[in-house]
Amino acid sequence: MGIAQLLGFAGTTVVLVGMPGPNNLYISLRSLTQGRRAGVVSALAIETGTLVYIVVAALGLATLVKASPMLFTAITIAGALYLAYLGVKMLRMPATETAGGVPPAPLGRVFRDGVVVNLLNPKAALFFLAFLPQFTSRGAGPDQLRTEMLLLGVGALVIGLTLDLCYAVGADAIGRRVRSARTSSRWRNRIVAAVYLALATAAVLTV
Hints:
Layout: H1 3-18, H2 22-34, H3 36-58, H4 61-67, H5 69-92, H6 107-119, H7 122-131, H8 142-180, H9 186-205
């Protein structure tokens, strides 16, 4: 792969990964409501899910998913249902009148939810199914193809983690003022829930 192709891959990856979607919105919401630490944990969780996609793509299982529209549809619907579940859970949280608003979730749960959000994210699936293979060498043998997919995947992971951490830090800077306000958390819960439900709806519409 030449320098021009590498630069093209990096630039396109920055645009695709940086576009608002379930992953970076999940990170932003965690930073807004719980602070930078939760945002960083969310970013690490998202990229843990990316590691799974890298292995799947390198083993050639991505081709199987691409060849089965029903399987891809099932993954998309599962992701939408999980986002809807997170939204409903936020709506059912009791409101408080204390500074800080939304009660913090344990970091273990934050990490788990982040991994699941990425694994069931149709945008991430399409990235590894349709985008990444375009930058592999034509006519490459199985071993070379596997190596190239791994290297491209690691490159995408590094770019993704960098952008994710930027989202986490930026959202935390905004969230400090929001969390310090001594108001009911009910409206903040509703806003977070609305984002999750909107993402779930958008995912269903891609089916």
